[in-house]
């Protein structure tokens, strides 16, 4: 044994207890024991140019990675990936706004501001932020509880405008409070909590939420004008309402939904199976939106067959607007849940792609990035945002290298906001509902992991069906 250790001496180490280690090598406390408390505080609080630069690079990561950006090697991939994701953000932003129970234009706002802010403060090079179905659905439940949908209202009346203002005020208040909670967590350095967010828990929650999103979109796909159910067993309440009102299905909207699903599902499957061969995925969502808008306008489906359309989408930049501060006490409990879900999904995605590409994620900095994104965005009529599954996957597969891809994503959305938005006036809401449902493909596929989930944690397996 002695001879073996002499042969492999670099790999043989003595076994130390904590006391023996301190005796042999000393400790940090011993070396600093002679320093007075005042000297320690003075050393900690000393300000210098180097300390300020280090703090700036640490808290604003764009100052760290942008000077080291490899222009010739990375710019093409970031440009293509950013433009591809930006095109996808347009239909998804409007579609997820329906889940939030606000007008589609606010989904476009939420697809712009958080993207820019995360590019500056985030550490995930392949993370795409913006609207996320699960977070949008949870926010929509809060909005419906405080500002329920009236049975009848003229969309062009002053009451309708006031109603929309109340709804986005509540949604923005949720975003503000969510951002403040994340900033408080950052101040307390609670990023380590991401260690306890196991993959089975995240999968269980997002898979169960996929059912809620899909069921909530049935009424739009069938052309039913039904109030949105909230509270306990809302999934079953919504399903019961849809079944009771099947006789009132709008045939035109049902046909639109069937055609859209017949196009979206196969093309998205092709994108998934041929992702290595395709330089960029086929932008089937935006193509569907453009074609459906043109057909509806040319055929006057909204007036002839009572097809519900998106309506007026204002052009231009949103004016700063205060969230509904008076609703903060009422939304506090739900907002805590929304915050943890958004953070869990965002950090999980960031870590997955960081491990894949060999770089590190800083959970505390992610708290700061998403906290600033939600806080600042809330003053521009945005609802809560987070990292998104579908667009993050597309961003990475399309060749994105750094956060600079967010610049090109935001430019696409900005062009739509300033110039193209009003052209979507005749877009049927049934098309957006179909986009919502097909965007959940990855979450539904997680049910293939049920046997593994049962082996890992029977408790998480039971929680999955409890949430459904």
Element layout with pairings:
Blueprint: H1 2-7, H2 18-25, H3 28-31, H4 37-45, H5 49-59, H6 62-65, H7 71-99, H8 104-110, H9 113-121, E1 129-130, H10 133-146, H11 158-187, H12 199-216, H13 218-222, H14 234-244, H15 251-273, H16 284-299, H17 301-304, H18 328-357, H19 363-378, E2 386-387, H20 389-397, H21 405-420, H22 429-438, H23 441-445, H24 450-456, H25 458-467
Antiparallel strand pairs: 1-2
Helix pairs in contact: 7-8, 7-10, 7-20, 7-21, 7-22, 9-19, 9-21, 10-11, 10-18, 11-18, 11-19, 12-14, 12-25, 15-16, 15-22, 24-25
Q: Could you estimate the helical fraction of the residues in percent?
A: 55-70%
N-end to C-end Cα span: 59 Å
**Poorly predicted ranges (pLDDT <50, ≥5 residues)?**
1-13, 27-35
Strand order of the largest sheet: 1-2
Q: What is the makeup of the main sheet?
A: 2 strands, antiparallel
The total count of strands amounts to: 2
Overall 3D geometry?
globular
Backbone structural class: mainly alpha
Approximate strand percentage: under 5%
Number of helices: 25
N-to-C SSE string, H for helix and E for strand: HHHHHHHHHEHHHHHHHHHHEHHHHHH
Evaluate the radius of gyration. 25 Å
Number of domains: 1
Mean pLDDT over the full residue set: 84
